[in-house]
Write a structure and sequence with these properties.
- The protein is of the alpha/beta class and about 425 residues long.
- About 30% of the residues lie in helices and about 20% in strands.
- The protein has helices spanning about 20-30, 55-70, 90-95, 100-105, 130-135, 160-165, 170-185, 185-200, 225-240, 270, 315-320, 325-335, 350-355, 390-395, 425-430, and strands at about 5-10, 45-50, 75-80, 115-120, 125-130, 140-145, 200-210, 215-225, 250-260, 290-295, 315, 345, 370-375, 380-385, 400-405.
- The strands form 3 sheets. Strands 12-11-10-9-13-14-1-15 form an 8-stranded mixed beta sheet.
- Helix 1 packs across helix 2 (about 55-70).
- The longest helix is centred in the middle third of the chain and has 15 residues, at about 170-185.
- The protein starts with 5 loop residues before the first strand and ends with a helix.
């Protein structure tokens, strides 16, 4: 079959990147007054999660160095619920893959799953904290603040969520998601977070904000007493920076990779306009997307294919990369069967597209509108079908790079890679189509 020709498109966002990430962390902590609340020699448990946060190793090392210069004894622990297949070894591997190892951090990394029961919230929710973290003199969280993929609220994904799902490890994550089934996740996160703050064990946190290029744009040292109010402010700010697919509608969206390192839902639901278990296109600020085709599973997802249920079709190679144990553990911990539903799959990219296009309500494949992204974090480089040119040209942030070209497939019937080119994107666009 013949597909519409494509355009390489650059989306221009404001560049908010910090010139010196480590220096910014040190400056924030110096001004925070957090160290003055502890005696020299105190042990500090630094919680780090499993998301693919830009510069996370640099940021974590800067936090460790700060505490060491103040005469404290820091150690790092994985603050993640069921990720890493809910094993101590698996969670340590997740950190190691981000460059967070004892050798690079020059401090201990303590990964285990035992928790301490820290009582119940006013709503009757049981609360748990990593045992080694609880035995420290103080707990500090290092977390990215951003929108959550399942709900809209004033506090979504960030320090409060890490206090609940992260500090609670697998035991806590399972309990909290069960309560969230009736109460809603935001209410559970707030309830657990407020309870843990009252224990006095949480010293504070370092909030990380990223711009639309997935660059570190702001770091904020936040004390326990201001954490809730400050996180609300930071979430509102980072939402205003959010990268989106700036179109009204697409018939088919091609996504190169899905993974837990990209989003807790595998793909950012507020980019692809899907919910993990609900009807499609729930978010009014995202384009209406008829069909989603996911080509591969990110190797940094460690086989977890949670979120694949939001795709309409995947390749056979995606299926072959699934490790069902972490996928099932993560999905069941979140009480979400929809996240692990296996889509229909075909051997090649070409066949996936050929099977999809007749299902979007158009008789001519050349009229099908197509979008193609690397993943839901990388939205500055887009491949869009030529039939979208009028809409592209009306958008002030979009720039067409080069002439239209055919959608190319290799000898095996898979798409010729275009979106892996980063620094050479303009050069690629200028090359013969």
């Amino acid at each position: 079959m013949q597909f519409p020709r494509i355009l390489l498109v650059r989306q221009h966002f404001p560049d908010r990147s910090l010139a010196d990430v480590a220096g910014a962390v040190q400056a924030e902590l110096q001004c925070s007054g957090l160290a003055e609340r502890l005696r020299p020699g105190s042990s500090i448990a630094i919680g780090v999660g499993s998301r693919g946060i830009a510069n996370i190793a640099v940021i974590t090392r800067a936090v460790v160095d700060y505490w060491k210069t103040r005469g404290m004894k820091p150690f790092i622990f994985p603050a993640m619920g069921s990720h890493g297949a809910a094993t101590a070894e698996g969670q340590a591997r997740v950190l190691a893959h981000f460059g967070i190892r004892e050798a690079t951090m020059e401090c201990p990394i303590r990964s285990q799953l035992e928790v301490v029961d820290t009582g119940r919230t006013e709503e009757g929710i049981e609360t748990y904290v990593d045992r080694l973290a609880w035995q420290s003199d103080a707990i500090m969280l290092v977390s990215r603040v951003k929108w959550h993929t399942d709900f809209e609220g004033e506090i979504e994904s960030g320090l409060f969520k890490m206090m609940a799902i992260g500090l609670g490890k697998f035991a806590g994550a399972a309990k909290y998601h069960t309560h969230a089934y009736k109460l809603g996740l935001e209410r559970v996160i707030l309830s657990v977070g407020r309870h843990l703050l009252r224990t006095g064990k949480i010293l504070g946190g370092l909030a990380i904000l990223e711009d639309a290029y997935h660059q570190t744009a702001l770091v904020a040292a936040v004390g326990a007493e201001e954490m809730e109010a400050r996180e609300r402010e930071l979430l509102a700010l980072v939402k205003s920076w959010m990268g989106r697919i700036p179109l009204e509608a697409l018939d088919i969206l091609v996504v190169d990779e899905l993974g837990k390192n990209i989003s807790g839902a595998g793909m950012d639901t507020k980019v692809i306009n899907r919910c993990e278990g609900g009807p499609p296109n729930p978010w009014p600020y995202a384009p209406k997307i008829e069909r989603i085709f996911v080509r591969s599973l990110s190797p940094l997802s460690y086989g977890s294919a949670v979120g694949m249920g939001m795709a309409d079709v995947v390749t056979d190679r995606f299926v072959e990369a699934i490790d069902w144990e972490p996928t099932i553990v993560n999905a069941l911990t979140a009480s979400s069967f929809a996240t692990m539903r296996l889509p229909v799959h075909f051997p090649t990219d070409r066949e996936c597209l050929e099977r999809l296009w007749p299902t979007v309500g158009k008789f001519d494949p050349l009229e099908v509108t197509l979008g193609w992204i690397r993943n839901t974090l990388v939205l500055d480089r887009l491949v869009l079908s030529e039939n979208l040119r009028p809409e592209i040209e009306r958008h002030p942030q979009l720039e067409i790079l080069g002439p239209p070209r055919e959608l190319e497939f290799d000898a095996e019937g898979n798409l010729v890679e275009l979106l892996e080119a980063r620094n050479g994107w303009e050069q690629l666009a200028a090359s013969p189509a």
